[in-house]
Amino acid sequence: QKEVEQDPGPLSVPEGAIVSLNCTYSNSAFQYFMWYRQYSRKGPELLMYTYSSGNKEDGRFTAQVDKSSKYISLFIRDSQPSDSATYLCAMLTGGGNKLTFGTGTQLKVEL
Amino acid sequence: GAVVSQHPSWVICKSGTSVKIECRSLDFQATTMFWYRQFPKQSLMLMATSNEGSKATYEQGVEKDKFLINHASLTLSTLTVTSAHPEDSSFYICSASARGRETQYFGPGTRLLVL
Question: Side-chain half-sphere of A109: how many Cα atoms within 13 Å?
Answer without folding.
Answer: 18
